[in-house]
User: What shape does this take?
Amino acid sequence: MLPLLLGAPSGEPLSVLAIGAHPDDIEIGAGGLLLGLAGVALRARYVVLTGTADRQQEARTAAHSFLPDADLTIELFDLPEGRLPAVWDQAKDILEKMARSCSPDVIVAPSRDDAHQDHRTIGEIVPTVFRDQLYLAYEIPKWDGDIGRPSVYVPLSAHVMQRKVELLHKSFPSQRGRDWWDDEVFFSLARLRGMECRARYAEAFTCTKSVIVPVTPAGDHPQGGDSHAHRH
Ligand SMILES: [Zn+2]
Assistant: This one.
C-alpha cells in the first residue's frame, strides 16, 4: 500500500497538537506515533483536560518521555473527570482558544465514536473548532468494548512498541493496579492492528477527512495547496 508520509513541511518543524481527556489517553492511543517522530523537527502542544495534581505530574513526565526532542508546550486542565459532558462549555472554550492560538499540521485526539463520555466529548468538539487540520482520532482499549474499524494505520517496529509499553508503565504508576492495564492488552491490540496493515505492530486511527495533493518530481504542489502533513 502506498504510504502517505508524515514529515516536516520544508524549512519548518512539523506541528502536532495532542489532546487527551485524561493523563495517559494520548500515550495509549498515539504513543507509538509520537515516539516514531523522534528525529523529525517537531513542535508539539500537549493538552490534557482533566486530572488531579498527581495525575498531572504523570502527564508531564510522560509528555517529556514520549516527545523528548520536541519543542514542547504542555497545557494541563482540571475539568472534572468522568463529567466532561456536564462541562461541555468549558471544554469547548479551552479547545476554541487553542484553535485561535495555534494552527497545527496534525491533531491526535480521541474519537467521537469512543464509548467513554469524556473521550467522546472531545471527539465531538475537535472538528467543530479545528476545521483545517488533519485530525487523527486514536483508539483506547476499554471495558466497554468499543474497538472500531480504523481508516489510518501507523506501523510500529517491535522496538518502538516495546519502548511505548515500557514508558507507559514508567510514566503512569498510578494506573498499574487497573485490571486492563497490562502488556497483553497493549501488545495484542497493536499486533492486531499491525496484522491489518501488514506490519508487526501498529496504532490505528480514524480520519474522517483528509486532503491529498499530488507532488510533482520537482517537489511542487500543482494545486498550490499546503498539505505538507500528507506528502508522498
Ligand atoms: Zn481516558
Q: What stands out?
A: The pocket of zinc ion is lined by residues 21-22, 25, 116, 119, 140 (CB under 6 Å). The longest helix spans residues 53-66.
